[in-house]
Each structure stands twice: as structure tokens, then as C-alpha cells.
Design a protein that fits this description.
Largest sheet: 5 strands, parallel
GO biological process, one term: coenzyme A biosynthetic process
GO molecular function: ATP binding; pantetheine-phosphate adenylyltransferase activity
Number of helices: 6
Number of domains: 1
CATH topology: Rossmann fold
Distance between the termini: 44 Å
Subcellular location: Cytoplasm
Shape: globular
Main location: cytoplasm
CATH superfamily: HUPs
EC number: 2.7.7.3
Strand order of the largest sheet: 3-2-1-4-5
Length: 164
């Protein structure tokens, strides 16, 4: 069984994330969505909320596309998380050249730690390349329309969080 790990903070999950998730399912038998517990980033949503949002979105994706998706929180090194879930491949989404520089360094370090785990880069769909969770949160905070960037249920939670 080929297991892939798609890690991120997913604060919140965007249509860019769901695009990568759907396409990654074609590459692996089981896709593990690794939800990073990154206290340094100061997430808007708690770990539990991010996991819940991803599980809800992934349920719809597997209903449409098939495949197996597991949502898995982690706080250790990415390479250790990959080992923990039995992943042979780490899937990373790229939006722009700036993403590649950081990701290139990460791949080098991960290969130094465990060269048996490959990294695959997937470009977001052209319509989704500009979407970043950080920008989505800022637009929503300032009262802008984020419906083109996040799934409807996520938009509702964003609005409730920022208005409540």
C-alpha cells in the first residue's frame, strides 16, 4: 500500500488545499493529512477545529473521488510523522517560486534524515495558486468576501469566529 503524507497547518483549509488533496489521491492508496500543531504560528482555529474542518471536507472528497483519507495531528518532525504513519512519500503543494525555495531546503533536510522517503511537489490549479490561508484570514478579518477561496462550511466558521 502506497501511503502519502500531505502536511500543513490548514488554518483554515482552503480550496487550494482541497485541490491538492483530490489530486494526491490519484498518487497514493492512503492519503494522510498531517495537521501540524505549530504554536509559533498562533493559529486562528484550534487543532481540534482544524482537524474537524478537514475531516468534513475530506468526507466529501472521498465520496466524489474515492480513496482513503486519514486526518492525523502531529507535533514532531515532519520526517518522524511520515515514519509514524508509514508514508513513503510526502506531498507538498506549491503556489509560487518563493514556496519552492523554502521547500527545496526542507527536502534536503528531510533526505538527510531519511532518504527512503520521497517528496513530491504538486502545483496548485492555476485558479487556486494565489490562495494562502494567511491572506484568507486577513481578507475575512477586514470584511472581504472569501467565498472564492474556501469551502462554504469553512467560510461560515471563519465568519462566526471573526464576528463572534
Amino acid at each position: 500500500m502506497r501511503i502519502g503524507l500531505y502536511p500543513g497547518t490548514f488554518d483554515p483549509v482552503t480550496l487550494g488545499h482541497t485541490d491538492i488533496i483530490q489530486r494526491a489521491l490519484a498518487l497514493v492508496d492512503r492519503l494522510v493529512i498531517g495537521v501540524a500543531i505549530n504554536r509559533d504560528k498562533g493559529p486562528l482555529f484550534s487543532l481540534e477545529e482544524r482537524v474537524e474542518m478537514l475531516q468534513a471536507e475530506c468526507k466529501g472528497i472521498t465520496a466524489r473521488c474515492g480513496g482513503e483519507i486519514v486526518v492525523h495531528p502531529f507535533e514532531n518532525l515532519l520526517i518522524d510523522c511520515a515514519r509514524d504513519v508509514g508514508a513513503s512519500v510526502i506531498i507538498r503543494g506549491l503556489r509560487a517560486v518563493a514556496d519552492f525555495e523554502y521547500e527545496f531546503q526542507m527536502v534536503g533536510m528531510n533526505r538527510a534524515l531519511d532518504d527512503s522517503i520521497e517528496t513530491v511537489f504538486m502545483m496548485a490549479d492555476a485558479r487556486r495558486q494565489a490562495i494562502a490561508s494567511k491572506l484568507v484570514k486577513e481578507i475575512a478579518r477586514l470584511g472581504g468576501d472569501v467565498s472564492r477561496f474556501v469551502p462554504p462550511a469553512v467560510e461560515a466558521r471563519l465568519q462566526a469566529r471573526l464576528r463572534g
